[in-house]
Structure formats: structure tokens, C-alpha cells
């Protein structure tokens, strides 16, 4: 995934929990994430590199215990087949820094049929009223 120098930078910048999930493909406990109930307008970014990932309008309550989105911004994430833990899933990683974000499933309730199930600790939320409002967002 990355070289040792880059991982050292991430270790210094991220909390131990964020590092374990983002860089070591861990999973936070369900219903424990600080962004699960976030309902304000804004942008969800990668907690590791700041890449814009999901618009708040794409977030929905899946009842699973993790923030869920029906689609990512174009080119923001990549998908990797994941056969770990005796399951076949599709991993979602940040297209910019290749950090693990969560998984995508084909059981979403919106027309896309997708549920990007993302660990809250992998995200930073930028409210719409912040100083970088509108950056990268198409109205």
C-alpha cells in the first residue's frame, strides 16, 4: 500500500484508532463514530489526506451503525475486491492516499442501490458554512 516513511507520517498525524482503521484496514465499533448522526450540509473528507469523498446530500441512515452514502464524488474513491474474514466484499479506499475507508454493498435504498458503509473515524466533516465552502462542489 505505501512505504515506511509515508506510514510514519500517518502515524504521527492520526490517532491510534484512526491509524488502525485507515492504514491497517481495521473497523470501528458500530454506533461509536462521531459522524454517524451528522445531518448538516457539507463535505466529508478523508481523515488521512483531506481528499473530498462524499457530499452530505448522499448520506443516509442505514441502521448499520456506520455512516452510509449512496455514492462518492466522481474519482474520489477506488474499489478493491476483499475476500478477507471468509467473506466476499468490495473495499472502498481513498483514491488519493489509498487509505481504507470501509466497504460498499449492493443493498442501498436509493436508486443507485449502493451503500458505502464508511468508518466514521476515516472521515472529517466540513460544514457548508466553513471557509472553503463550495470548493469542488457542483450546485
Secondary-structure-derived class: alpha+beta
| CATH fold assignment | Metal Binding Protein, Guanine Nucleotide Exchange Factor, Chain A
Task: Tell me which oligomeric state these chains represent.
Answer: single chain
Query: Which CATH C-level class is it?
Result: Mainly Beta
From the structure above, extract its key features.
139 residues, alpha+beta, Metal Binding Protein, Guanine Nucleotide Exchange Factor, Chain A, six-stranded antiparallel beta sheet, 2 helices, globular, disordered C terminus
Q: How is this structure best described in words?
A:
The protein is of the alpha+beta class. It has one domain: Peptide methionine sulfoxide reductase (Metal Binding Protein, Guanine Nucleotide Exchange Factor, Chain A, Beta Complex). Helices cover 12% and strands 29% of the residues. The chain has 2 helices and 9 strands, in the order ααβββββββββ. The protein has helices spanning 4-13, 16-22; strands at 42-46, 52-55, 59-60, 68-69, 77-82, 89-94, 100-105, 115-118, 123-127. The protein has a 6-stranded antiparallel β-sheet with strand order 3-4-8-7-6-5, with no helix packed on it. It has a 3-stranded antiparallel β-sheet with strand order 2-1-9, with no helix packed on it.
Amino acid at each position: 500500500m505505501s512505504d515506511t516513511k509515508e506510514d510514519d507520517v500517518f502515524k504521527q498525524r492520526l490517532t491510534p484508532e484512526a491509524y488502525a482503521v485507515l492504514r491497517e484496514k481495521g473497523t470501528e465499533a458500530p454506533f461509536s463514530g462521531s459522524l454517524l448522526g451528522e445531518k448538516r450540509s457539507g463535505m466529508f473528507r478523508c481523515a488521512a489526506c483531506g481528499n473530498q469523498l462524499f457530499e452530505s446530500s448522499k448520506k443516509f441512515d442505514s441502521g448499520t451503525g456506520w455512516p452510509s452514502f449512496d455514492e462518492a464524488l466522481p474519482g474520489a474513491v477506488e474499489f478493491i475486491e476483499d475476500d478477507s474474514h471468509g467473506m466476499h466484499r468490495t473495499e472502498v479506499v481513498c483514491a488519493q492516499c489509498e487509505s481504507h475507508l470501509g466497504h460498499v454493498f449492493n443493498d442501498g435504498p436509493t436508486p443507485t442501490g449502493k451503500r458505502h458503509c464508511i468508518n466514521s473515524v476515516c472521515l472529517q466533516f466540513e460544514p457548508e458554512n466553513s471557509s472553503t465552502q463550495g470548493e469542488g462542489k457542483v450546485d
